[in-house]
Amino acid sequence: METLTNDKATLEVQLSTQQKLIANMREELGICKEHKAMAESQSESRGAHLLELKAQLEDAVLSLEAAERRMHDGELMRRRLHNTIQELKGNIRVFCRVRPMSSLEQVGADPDIQPALDFPPSDDLLSAGIILSAPSRDGAATLSKHVFAFDRVFTPEASQDAVFEEISELVQSALDGHKVCIFAYGQTGSGKTFTMLGSEEQPGMIPRSMRQIFESSQGLRQQGWELSLQASMLEIYNEEYKDLLSSKKLSGSNKSTKEGFGSQQPSGEIKKHQVVHNPDGSTTVSELTVVDITQASQVDLLLAQAMEKRSVGCTALNEQSSRSHMVFTLRLEGVNEAKGKRVSGVLNLIDLAGSERVKDSGAAGLRMKEAQAINTSLSALGDVIVALGNKQPHIPFRNSKLTYLLQPCLGGDAKTLMFVNVAPNIQFAGESLCSLRFAAKVNACEINHRKKG
């Protein structure tokens, strides 16, 4: 009996222990069920949140795609509107710029002599006037007044900033894939080279154009565009092409370029540059150095190198007269892989040789030959522009090396701007009159669009 009693007590203790254990396990099971329920609830909540996030992401992707389409369509619309505005302004425009008097000219100026130029106010928003007082042909003491009207007239006080503001739209046209030519024309010593190249303190149109292009390229990159730039510089001296960026005189250091695409040439004797116009509208110039441009400051170095090689000479009108046309050509290639788009533009900035009347410049010998080549070339340029404006069946591009080189960039939907630079002095009134008459002939032309009066 005692054994059974002991066994019963032991079993009761074990039963109590098991009951406590079962109670604890049931309690833990309840907690686990609660955790499970909470986890399932959280999972459902997170799943719903995940689905919501996925839906938001899909909406965001669709919104982004729609925004990109709108941005792309907006860019296309901007380009079309920009081009329409440029065409309404005229695919060929003429700006007149009057340089200020130099310090030496100011010292020697006679206060009793009236200025050679006057700038009457104009109510015409599309043109501006300038009046030139020049000695009469009959030798009388009286002055004859000659009135001209151009798209813009810049007085001697006009800054480089103000001048570039007017041509920046044409730089944008080149970025948009058009061919653009900007000329600086005028007598020797009238400020053409300053307009185009400027100085370190007052950069000219070429360095400012490069600055604008690189600033614009940042925005284009955000739109998926990659822009590549290639530059070349040559001069036309006595109707011969000369590479201004060649590191050597021999052709072994030169390159062949298709409006900027080059390949190394074998060394050998000096070769003449050959210009070939291709069916796709591009131009090939043999033996011409081309440079890939990755930053605007590169162009400053190229300009300095080119100016060291450019042909200059002393005349009675200017001690450092440019005796050649200098042509800076920048080819712009834009590619948007995502949209499958490509644009190709060309920007030509030309510092023309100074026009001059031989009897005034005192040219003789070599200077006489240079002056004749310069004047013949400038006359040919005017003839081409007039022929384009009159829609003549034959355009005399081959009459000069300059017009033949620039043939694809003149006429059609190309954009052309000519600066006529004049001096303010009465002693240069005869030369200024010739320059203004030439510019007026160009300004009267219409190429494809707005007629000028």
Short description:
With 453 residues, the chain is of the alpha+beta class. The protein is 43% helix and 23% strand.
Describe, in plain words, how this protein is organized in 3D.
There is one protein chain. This protein has 453 residues and is α+β, with helices and mostly antiparallel strands. The protein folds into 2 domains: 89 residues; 308 residues, Kinesin motor domain (Kinesin). It is 43% helix and 23% strand. It contains 10 helices and 18 strands. The strands form 4 sheets. Strands 1, 5, 6, 7, 8, 13, 16, 17 and 18 form a 9-stranded mixed sheet that branches. Helix 3 packs across helix 5. The longest helix has 88 residues. The protein is elongated and about 160 Å long. The relative contact order is 0.15. About 4% of the residues have low confidence. One of its GO terms (molecular function) is microtubule binding. This is Kinesin-like protein. Keywords: ATP-binding, Coiled coil, Microtubule, Motor protein, Nucleotide-binding. Belongs to the TRAFAC class myosin-kinesin ATPase superfamily. Kinesin family. KIN-14 subfamily. It comes from Chlamydomonas eustigma.
